[in-house]
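Memo to structure team: turn this sequence into C-alpha cells by end of day. - J.P.
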Amino acid sequence: MAKLWQKDYQLNELVERFTVGRDYLLDLRLVNADCVASLAHAKMLASIGLLTEAEVDSLRGGLSRIIAESTARSFVIRKEDEDCHTAIENRLTKDLGEVGKKIHTGRSRNDQVMAALRLHARSRLLDLLGAILDLSRALAEFAEKHQAVPMAGRTHMQLAMPSSVGLWAASYAELLLDDYSLVEQAFTLNDRSPLGSAASYGVPLPLDREMVARLLGFSGIQNNVLAVNNSRGKLEAVILDSLDQVGLTLSKFAQDLVLFSMPEFGYFRLPEELCSGSSIMPQKRNPDGLELLRAKSSTLSAAATQVKSIIRGLTSGYNRDFQETKEPFLRGLSLAHECLQIARLTVERLEVDEARLRAAFTPDIFATDAALEQVRAGASFRDAYRKVAANLGELAGRDPAEAIEQRTSSGNTGNLKLEGVYSAISARRHGLGSIEKRVEQAIVALIGEKVQL
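Reply from structure team:
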C-alpha cells in the first residue's frame, strides 16, 4: 500500500522513522473523525459531478466499516502508513477499488488533519464544557450546604478575617464559570470547517465548502484558505490556553485542600477511597489525587507553551513543524477532562469538620470587625485601627457565625447569591445542549448513526 505522497522512490528508513514519529499511534484517536469528514467531502464531490451517487454509497459503506472497527479498537494503522489518513485511503482502495483513489480529490493531507483535529476537538470541548458546569454545580451545592459554617479567612497564609466554607466553595464555582467563558470562546473559534483550504491555497475546483461545513455540523467555514492553514497550531494553542486557565483554578483548589486537610488544620477530611498509602509507613493516607491535580495543571500549561513554541516564527503556508503540535494538543484535551473529573469526585466526597473550623477562630481574627464597629460609632478608621491593634486581647468571646451573618453585601459570606450561580449554570447548560443537538443531528444524518469523534 502506498503513502499518500508516494512517487517513484523510497524514503530513507531513518528519515521515515523520524518524520512519522508517533503519528500512527496518536491518530488512532482521529480515525472516526477522518472517516466522517471524508464522507462529507465525498458527498460534496458528488454534488459538483466528480463522484457518482453509487460511488458515494460505496464509500459510505467502506467508511462505516472502518468506523465500526475503530470503535471496537481493531482498526490498525501501521508505521508504514504514517497516519490515519493514509491507512483509511489505502483500506478504501483495497476494499472498494478505483473509488478509493478518488476520495482525496480536492484535498490535501493538511486540511484532512485539520478537519479531523477540529472534529475531535469539538467533541472533547463539548465534554469539557459539560464537565466544567458539573464541577461548578457541585461546588455551588457544597457551598449552599455549608454556607453558614465558619472558616478562617487567610492572607499571606496568616489568619486574616472571618469567612465561611460557603464563600470558599462558591468562589471556585464562580471562577469555573469565568473559565467556561474562555473555553467557550475557544470552542467558537474551533467550530469552523477548514476543508477546501487544501495545502493553504485552495484548489481550482468548484468545491462547496459551505456544504461540507453543514454536513459536519460546523457553524460555518473558516473563510480565507491561507488563514485556515496559518491558524494551525495557533488554534490549538488558544484551546490549550483556555484549558490552562481551568488548570490554574483547579491547582489552587487542590492546594487549598492539601493544606486544609492536613492533621494540623483538619478543616476538611478526604475519604479513604480518595487517598493512597505509603509503601513503608502503615499509618499514611496521602492526598495523591490532589497532589497530582496540582502537578498536572503544570503539565497542561506546558502543553500550551510547547505548541506556541513550535509555531512561533513559522512562515505562511504549510510547514511540517505542525505535526509536532498534535501530541501536546491531544494530551492536553484528555488531561483537562481527567482533572475536572477528579476535582468533582473530590468535592462530592469531601467531609467538613465544623468543630475544627470554629476552633481556628482565635480572637485576633475579629480585629477588622472591631475597628469597623468603632467607625460606625463615629471614630475615624485610622484611629479605630490603631486602638484595636493596641488592645487585641479584648476581642475574645466573639461568635464566628454572627460575623458571617453581618457580611451582607453582594457576594459576601452572608449573601452568597448562589441563585445567580445556579442561573448561570442552567443558561450555559441550555446553550451547550443546543450545540450538542446540532452536532449529533448532523453526524447521524451524514453517517446514519451516532459516532464518537
